[in-house]
Design brief:
Layout lengths: L3 E6 L4 H12 L4 E8 L4 H11 L3 E4 L4 H15 L11 E4 L3 H8 L4 E4 L7 H10 L2 E4 L2 H7 L1 H6 L5 E3 L2 H10 L7 E8 L17 H4 L9 H9 L1 H14 L6 E5 L5 E7 L4 E5 L5 H9 L31 H11 L3 H17 L6 H12 L11 H32 L1
The protein binds NADPH dihydro-nicotinamide-adenine-dinucleotide phosphate, 1-deoxy-D-xylulose-5-phosphate and manganese (II) ion.
Length: about 400
C-alpha cells in the first residue's frame, strides 16, 4: 500500500481535528505534510504540526507568524526535542499563506476543511496542482460553481460532506441513466417541529444545540436555519449533475441514513452509519478504498426507530430559496451563501434575531437581478459576494434598528 500525503486546511476545526485522528490511526496509509488554519489557535496548530511531522504550517492572519513560531518552540521544548535532531516546520503567514502552502508542499490529497467561501481560492489552487481534493468546504463549490467544475478533472473532487459521501457510495458501480432521484436527509436541526413565530426569540445557544452532530459554529447555525441543507442541495447538483427537480430533501431526525439514491426500477439504496464524520473523512482520504475500523458500525441488536417526515417549508424556507438560486444559476448561489455568512455573523454577534438570517438571504436574492450571468472568472464571483455582503449588512442594519424600536414599544 502506498502512503498518501495529505495537506489539511482548517486543521484546528471540527473536521480538521477528526481528519488528523484518522491519519494518526492509519500511519501506514496516510501522512500529513502540511497544516493550515486561520491563526485563531496557534498553540493547537503548533501541537498538530509537530505531532504530525508536517513540513510546513500556514496561517491566514499575518500577525500570527510570531505566535505560531513561539508556540512551535514551546511545543518542541515540551516534548524534549533539541534543535539539532529536529526539523522545525516552515511557517507561512498572511492572506496568501494557504495558497503558498498548496503550491509549495506537494501532496496527493488536499483536504479543504476551512469554513466559509474564503475556501474558494484554496479549492482552485488544490485542483490546479492535480491533487485529489477531499472537499468538506462546500461553500467554495457553491460560490465557484462552474469555475470549480471546469478546474476539476473527472473524479478529482471527492466529497467529505456526509450526505454527498453517502450518495457517492450509493452510486458506486451504477450507471448515470439508472438514477431517478437523489434524496438528501436533514436532521431538521434543533428547532424541528417549531412554527416560525416560535423562532423569533431563540438564542445563539439554542441554535448551537444540534440534535445529532458536534460541528463548528457556522455549519451548526446553518443546520438550525436549514441553510446547510440548501447549500447541500446545490452541492449535490454540482457534484452529481442531477437536475434540481430530481433532488429531494427529507427530514430524518436520527441522522443514521446520510442520504439515498432512488433508481429507475423503483429501488432505493441508502447509506447508513451512526453520525460520525470520521467515516466520510476516511473514505475521502482513502477513496475508493474503505479504511477498516474508521467508525463504529450501525447496531441492529437494540430496538430503534428511524423516522422520516417532510420538511416544513413555511417555517424553514432556506431549501426552497437555495433551489431557486441554484436553478437560476450564475452567481446566485454565491450570493445566497455570502448573504448567509454575513447574517450568521450578525446573529452570533448578537446584532440580529435568528429569523433575520434567512429573511436577509431572501431579500438579498430578491435584489440580485444583476448576478444571473455565468461568472467569467473568480473576480466576478468575488464581486458578487462583495455586493451580497454589503446588501446583507444594509438589510441587517435595518433589522437591528427595527428590533430596538420594537423592544421600545413593548
Ligand atoms: N463539522 C462537520 O461535521 C462538517 C463540516 N463540513 C464543512 O467543513 C468545513 C469546516 O467545518 P468545521 O470543521 O465544522 O468548521 P470549524 O469552524 O470547526 O473549523 C474551521 C477551520 O477553518 C480555519 N479557518 C478559518 N478561516 C480560515 C482562513 N481564512 N484560512 C485558513 N483557515 C481558516 C479555522 O482556523 P482557526 O481555528 O484558526 O480559526 C479552523 O481550523 C465547512 O465548510 C463545513 O460546512 C461539512 C460537513 C460536516
Ligand atoms: C455532518 C454533516 O454532513 C452535516 O452537514 C450535517 O448533515 C448537518 O446536519 P443537518 O442535516 O442538520 O444539516
Ligand atoms: Mn452535511
Amino acid at each position: 500500500m502506498t502512503k498518501r500525503s495529505v495537506l489539511v486546511l482548517g486543521s484546528t476545526g471540527s473536521i480538521g481535528v477528526q481528519a488528523l485522528d484518522v491519519v494518526a490511526a492509519n500511519p501506514d496509509r496516510f501522512e500529513v505534510v502540511g497544516v493550515a488554519a486561520g491563526g485563531g489557535n496557534p498553540a493547537v496548530l503548533a501541537e498538530q504540526a509537530i505531532a504530525t511531522g508536517a513540513r510546513a504550517v500556514a496561517v491566514s492572519r499575518a500577525t500570527a507568524f510570531e505566535d505560531v513560531q513561539l508556540a512551535l518552540y514551546a511545543e518542541a521544548k515540551r516534548r524534549g526535542y533539541d534543535a539539532g535532531g529536529f526539523a522545525m516546520p516552515r511557517i507561512l503567514a498572511g492572506p496568501d499563506a494557504v495558497a503558498e502552502l498548496i503550491d509549495t508542499v506537494p501532496a496527493d490529497i488536499v483536504l479543504n476543511a476551512v469554513t466559509g467561501s474564503i475556501g474558494l481560492e484554496p479549492t482552485l489552487r488544490a485542483l490546479a496542482t492535480g491533487a485529489t481534493l477531499a472537499l468538506a468546504n462546500k461553500e467554495s463549490l457553491i460560490a465557484g460553481g462552474p469555475l470549480v467544475l471546469r478546474a476539476a478533472k473527472p473524479g478529482q473532487i471527492v466529497p467529505v460532506d456526509s450526505e454527498h459521501s453517502a450518495i457517492a457510495q450509493c452510486l458506486r458501480g451504477g450507471r448515470a441513466e439508472e438514477v431517478a432521484r437523489l434524496v438528501l436527509t436533514a436532521s431538521g436541526g434543533p428547532f424541528r417541529g417549531r412554527r416560525a413565530e416560535d423562532l423569533t426569540d431563540v438564542t445563539v445557544a439554542d441554535a448551537m444545540a444540534h440534535p445529532t452532530w458536534a460541528m463548528g459554529p457556522v455549519i451548526t447555525i446553518n443546520s438550525a436555519t436549514l441553510v446547510n441543507k440548501g447549500l447541500e442541495l446545490i452541492e449535490a447538483h454540482l457534484l452529481f449533475g442531477v437536475p434540481y427537480e430530481r433532488i429531494d430533501v427529507v427530514v430524518h431526525p436520527q441522522s443514521m441514513i446520510h442520504s439515498m439514491v432512488e433508481f429507475a426500477d423503483g429501488s432505493t439504496i441508502a447509506q447508513a452509519s451512526p453520525p460520525d464524520m470520521r467515516l466520510p473523512i476516511s473514505l475521502a482520504l482513502g477513496w475508493p478504498d474503505r479504511v477498516p475500523g474508521a467508525a463504529r458500525p450501525t447496531r441492529f441488536d437494540e430496538a430503534t426507530a428511524w423516522t422520516f417526515e417532510p420538511l416544513d417549508d413555511d417555517t424553514f424556507p432556506a431549501v426552497r430559496l437555495a433551489r431557486l438560486a441554484g436553478e437560476a444559476g450564475g452567481c446566485l448561489p454565491a450570493v445566497y451563501n455570502a448573504a448567509n455568512e454575513e447574517a450568521v455573523g450578525a446573529f452570533v454577534g448578537g446584532h440580529t434575531p435568528f429569523t433575520a438570517i434567512v429573511d436577509t438571504v431572501h431579500r438579498v436574492l430578491d435584489d440580485a437581478d444583476g448576478w444571473h450571468g455565468e461568472p467569467s472568472g473568480v473576480e466576478e464571483v468575488l464581486a458578487a459576494e462583495a455586493w451580497a455582503r454589503a446588501k446583507a449588512r444594509e438589510r441587517l442594519g435595518a433589522t437591528v434598528e427595527l428590533g430596538v424600536t420594537e423592544r421600545k414599544e413593548d
